[in-house]
Amino acid sequence: MSIMTGLSASERQAALETTLVPARIVPVLTIERVSDGVPLAKALVAGGIKVLEVTFRTHAAAEAAKAIIAEVPDAIVGMGTVLNGDDLRRAQALGAKFAVSPGATPELLDTAAESALPLLPGVATASEVMQAQARGFNLLKFFPAEQAGGIPMLRALAGPFPTTRFCPTGGVNADNLATWLAEPNVIAAGGSWLCPASDIKSGNWEIITARCVDAMKKLRRK
Q1: Rounded Cα–Cα distance for residues 216 and 139 (Å)
Q2: How far apart, in whole angstroms, are the C-alpha atoms of residue 12 and residue 49?
Q3: What digits encode the pLDDT tens for the residues 162-186?
Q4: Which domain holds residue 210?
Q5: What is the C-alpha to C-alpha distance for residues 95 and 50, in angstroms, rounded to an integer?
Q6: Is the dihedral of CA 201, 146, 90, 137 positive or negative?
Q7: Annotation says 66 is catalytic
Q8: Residues in Cβ contact with 109 at an 8 Å cutoff, skipping those fewer than 6 apart
Q9: Which of 53, 66, 97, 146 is catalytic?
Q10: How many folded domains does the chain comprise?
Q11: Using an 8 Å Cβ cutoff, are 117 and 98 in contact?
Q12: 165/32 Cα distance (integer angstroms)
């Protein structure tokens, strides 16, 4: 299936920025059972979290994402753990609004450069930022954020790449979220702390909603 488009790289980046800037928090969802997808999404949306990343890490991911898109209209669904062009095509076929990758191979970046679906490519080093920039990507996922050097690394990258902005994921949690978001080159932050596997497995939807409400209140106070 072709994913060619007339959209320019800057237009795709602008679309992604329009999605992420108001969101501030992007929960990373690993869904093991299709039946959990819709109630989980509803719990997050009820707590004020509308932009969701459903990872391609499980067999249930695609069907769960499809159900969320169909049944939770307020959710803005992106697909994560996109590893290659085939994954990007799958994400677009599902109706996802964006895609997220943990890293970025030349093949994935080349495919994404010709896709209608905005991609947030993952980077951890200056060389990886340069490879992404060469294909028109200036909005990137910084992953794994804490393990790759944390905020000191992000500040170091700001020097040679002043126009690049990041969505850190990996080690971001309720305690350090506001610190990450205070960095000038951070556009949003991702993580799984809002909906841990134990709560999803147990169907603790009200607890997940309450956690989201608390996170958003804390951000508004900053």
Answers
A1: 23
A2: 22
A3: 999 999 999 999 999 999 999 999 9
A4: 9-216
A5: 16
A6: positive
A7: no
A8: 121, 131, 132, 135, 137
A9: 53
A10: 1
A11: yes
A12: 32
pLDDT band at 3 (very low <50, low <70, confident <90, very high): very low
- Which residue has tokens 């997050």? 44
Domain contains 4: no
The mean pLDDT of 44-48, rounded to a whole number, is 98
Contact yes or no for 188/26 (Cβ under 8 A): yes
Give the SS3 label for residue 217. Answer: helix
The closest alpha carbon to 166, from 178, 175, 151, 174, belongs to 151
Write down the catalytic residue from 42, 66, 97, 141: 141
Q: How far is CA 28 from the centre of its chain?
A: 7
Residue with tokens 């994402």: 65
Report yes or no on 221 lying in a domain. no
Token pair of 68 as six digits: 């969320």
CB 47 within 8 Å of CB 211: yes
Mean pLDDT rounded to a whole number for the chain: 95
Angle at 174 between CA 71 and CA 20, to 5 degrees: 50
Tens of pLDDT along 72-92? 999 999 999 999 999 999 999
Compute φ and ψ for 62, nearest 5 degrees: -65, -45
pLDDT band at 220 (very low <50, low <70, confident <90, very high): confident
Please state, in angstroms and rounded to a whole number, the distance separating the CA atoms of residues 38 and 11: 30
53 carries an active-site annotation: yes
Per the listing, tokens 């890293």 go with 103
Q: What is the CATH number of the domain that holds 111?
A: 3.20.20.70
Amino acid sitting at position 47: G
